[in-house]
Amino acid sequence: MAGEFFEGGYPPPAFYFTVTFGNGSQVPDASFSEVSGIALEMETEAVVEGGENRFVHQLPKSIKHPNLELKRGITMLNSPLVKWCKDTLEGDFMKLIVPQTIVVKLNGADGTVLRAWAFINAYPIKWDIEGFNATKNEVAIEKMTFAYTYSKRSK
């Protein structure tokens, strides 16, 4: 029965997570402040049955997922992650787009992996720098958005 609950019987906090790219090695600059877009949704098709006015059939069609978004403070241009984004988004399609697997892991307080999601054949599609404001004392934030073929949860 104890294995059914997380530490202390409470849901895990969402602030202790890791992100890895490609072969699973931790890229030195892969520390992100926020991850969003971990979702699956089944698309349905409405089919009206002739003579039946009480309801409309909702038939399963396909699985869709939003783009994966990663936010962090702006980092150095010589990092492998930034190089991948630059090559893909600033390469004018002269270089091949190189998809990679992105793995997001939610960790417990002791560092054990509680949940993990793999995003297969991911590649950057947007690289956004949040606005600058001289009246605020905030860190400059970049947001990287990735498309992917499919995702799978491994825990």
UniProtKB/TrEMBL annotation:
This is Phage tail protein. Pfam families: Phage_T4_gp19 (PF06841). It comes from the Bacteria. GO terms for molecular function: structural molecule activity.
